C-alpha cells in the first residue's frame, strides 16, 4: 500500500480527529517519544504478516476475553486495521499520509466542555461480594492474586464532547499513554501508564506495574517510601515481575530486570519495574498474545484468576485492561493496556477501574483505590 505524504502544521493535533467525524479512527500518544499517531477511515483489516509488511501503520486491539456478549462492546476490538489517512507528529514535524487523495485539515480550537453529570457510587455491596469470592480463593491457596474491577455508569446532561475529554486527558496526564478508538458512534479512550510490550528490532520492553498508593500534598515523598517498603504491595508487584519473566524464559534466555522504582501520576504512585528481553524470531503480535493478561490485569495463576473474574464480575470488560497498540510495517511498535479508561456512547460514559487482590488485601482499602483510579476519567469530563 503506497501512501502519499505532505508536511502540515496543525495548532492542535485533534484537528485531524475532528476532521473525520463519523469515520472509524484512532488516536495514540506515546509520552516516551512525544509522538502522536492518528488514523482515520478504515481501509483494510490485516490478517497476515505479509499484509502487515505493506502497511505504514496498523492499529490493533483485543478484547480482554475472546467472547463478547454485551451489545455495547459489539464490533469493538480483535482487529488489526490499516487506515486511509494518518497523522504523525514526531521530532517537531507533522506529516499527513494519504492512501489515494489528499485532504485539507482545518485548524480548529478545541472547546473545553465542563460536562454536568451524575453517577451512582453505591456499588459497595456488590464490591464486597466480589472481593469476598476472590479472597476465599486466595485464602484457600487456589490463587495468589486476582485483579477485580468495577464498571461505573456516568450519565451526562448532554452528549459528551470527546475532543474535550481527550484534550483534558493529555493535559492532566502528561506521563501517560493517551489512546482513543472511535467506531459506530462509540469511543473507547483512556490515559494508561502501563506498557504491555514494546518491540523495536530485537529489543523487547515490558512493564511490571502493580502496587499503588495515593498521592499527598503534604508528604508525597514519604508516600513513595511507604509504598516501596509495604510488604503487601511489594508482594503483589513481585507476582507480576515473576510471571512476565517466566513467560519470556519460554522464548528467550536474554532477559534483564531493572530495579523497582516509583511511577508518579497525577493522583497516584505505582511500583514500576522495566523488564527487557531480546528475541529475533517472534513478532510483536505473537508476544502480545503470550503476555496478555499479565497478573497486573488478570491475576496469578492466570487460568484460575480469569475463571473467578468470569464467574463473579457482573459487567463485561470488553476493551478494558486489554492490549491496544500501534505496529508498523517492520513489525515494530508498542502495546499498552486499556486501563484508566471509559467507553463513551452519546451522553453515557461507562468508566472502568480495578485493583489487585492478594493475601492481606483489605476490601475497603481496595475500593478506595478504585475510586482514586476513577479520577482519571471523571476529571477529564
TrEMBL record:
GO molecular function, one term: isochorismate synthase activity
GO BP term, example: salicylic acid biosynthetic process
First-tier enzyme category under EC: isomerase
Catalytic reaction list: chorismate = isochorismate
UniProt KW Isomerase keyword: yes
Alphabetical list of Pfam families matching this protein: Chorismate_bind
Record InterPro entries: ADC_synthase, Chorismate_C, IsoChor_synthase
Domain Chorismate-utilising enzyme C-terminal intervals: 124-373
UniProt KW keywords: Isomerase
Enzyme Commission number: 5.4.4.2
Gene3D superfamilies referenced in this protein's UniProt entry, alphabetically: Anthranilate synthase (3.60.120.10)
Annotated family: Belongs to the isochorismate synthase family.
PANTHER family found in the cross-reference section: ISOCHORISMATE SYNTHASE ENTC, ISOCHORISMATE SYNTHASE MENF
Protein known as: isochorismate synthase
Species assigned in the record: Oceanirhabdus seepicola
Amino acid at each position: 500500500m503506497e501512501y502519499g505524504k505532505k508536511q502540515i502544521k496543525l495548532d492542535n493535533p485533534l484537528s485531524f480527529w475532528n476532521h473525520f467525524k463519523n469515520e472509524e479512527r484512532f488516536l495514540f500518544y506515546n509520552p516516551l517519544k512525544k509522538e502522536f499517531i492518528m488514523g482515520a477511515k478504515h481501509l483494510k483489516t490485516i490478517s497476515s504478516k505479509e499484509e502487515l509488511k505493506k502497511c505504514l501503520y496498523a492499529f490493533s486491539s483485543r478484547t480482554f476475553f475472546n467472547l463478547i456478549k454485551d451489545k455495547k462492546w459489539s464490533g469493538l476490538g480483535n482487529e488489526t486495521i490499516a487506515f486511509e489517512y494518518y497523522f504523525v507528529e514526531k521530532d517537531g514535524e507533522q506529516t499527513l499520509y494519504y492512501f489515494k487523495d489528499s485532504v485539507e485539515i482545518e485548524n480548529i480550537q478545541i472547546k473545553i466542555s465542563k460536562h454536568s453529570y451524575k453517577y451512582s457510587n453505591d456499588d459497595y455491596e456488590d464490591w464486597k461480594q466480589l472481593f469476598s469470592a476472590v479472597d476465599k480463593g486466595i485464602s484457600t491457596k487456589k490463587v495468589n492474586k486476582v485483579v477485580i474491577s468495577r464498571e461505573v455508569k456516568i450519565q451526562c446532561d448532554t452528549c459528551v464532547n470527546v475532543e474535550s475529554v481527550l484534550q483534558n486527558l493529555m493535559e492532566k496526564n502528561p506521563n501517560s499513554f493517551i489512546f482513543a478508538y472511535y467506531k459506530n458512534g462509540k469511543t473507547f479512550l483512556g490515559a494508561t501508564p502501563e506498557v504491555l510490550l514494546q518491540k523495536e528490532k530485537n529489543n523487547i520492553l515490558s512493564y511490571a506495574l502493580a502496587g499503588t498508593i495515593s498521592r499527598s500534598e503534604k508528604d508525597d515523598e514519604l508516600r513513595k517510601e511507604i509504598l516501596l517498603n509495604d510488604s503487601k504491595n511489594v508482594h503483589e508487584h513481585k507476582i507480576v515481575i515473576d510471571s512476565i519473566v517466566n513467560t519470556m524464559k519460554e522464548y528467550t534466555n536474554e532477559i534483564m530486570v531493572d530495579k523497582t522504582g516509583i511511577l508518579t501520576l497525577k493522583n497516584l504512585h505505582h511500583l514500576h519495574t522495566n523488564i527487557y528481553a531480546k528475541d529475533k524470531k517472534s513478532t510483536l503480535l505473537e508476544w502480545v498474545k503470550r503476555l496478555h493478561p499479565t497478573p497486573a490485569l488478570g491475576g496469578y495463576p492466570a487460568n484460575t484468576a480469569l475463571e473467578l473474574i468470569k464467574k463473579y464480575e457482573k459487567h463485561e470488560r470488553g476493551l478494558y485492561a486489554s492490549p491496544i497498540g500501534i505496529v508498523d510495517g517492520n513489525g515494530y511498535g508498542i502495546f499498552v493496556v486499556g486501563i484508566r479508561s471509559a467507553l463513551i456512547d452519546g451522553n453515557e460514559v461507562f468508566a472502568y477501574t480495578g485493583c489487585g487482590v492478594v493475601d492481606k488485601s483489605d476490601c475497603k482499602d481496595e475500593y478506595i483505590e478504585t475510586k482514586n483510579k476513577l479520577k482519571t476519567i471523571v476529571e477529564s469530563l
